[in-house]
Amino acid sequence: MPRNRVTRTPGRRSLNLRRLLGACIAVAMLWGLFWLLFLSGLTDPLMEVARPGYDRLVAMINDPLGIDWGGRLVAIAAVLIPHLGLLLFVFDENA
């Protein structure tokens, strides 16, 4: 007759090893993503496209009174309002 075996939980040491291995894999993936985006040179064309927007953002932070805020706010509202309306439509619980 087969014996009823009690299922054993993994030991404390093996759980710590698994957590350490998982943390090492996560750090390696983050380092790989950082290297790909900033150090490999593959994204340089994208960074050149984003450079004017970045320069405008730096100018806004450095000299907030020298910016045409009316035009900026209208542009921001023109982008945000349709997205907010879509989110309200999607997550409406009354429908």
From TrEMBL:
It comes from Nocardiopsis sinuspersici. Keywords: Membrane, Transmembrane, Transmembrane helix. It comes from the Bacteria. This is Fe2+ transport system protein B. The chain crosses the membrane at residues 20-38, 69-91.
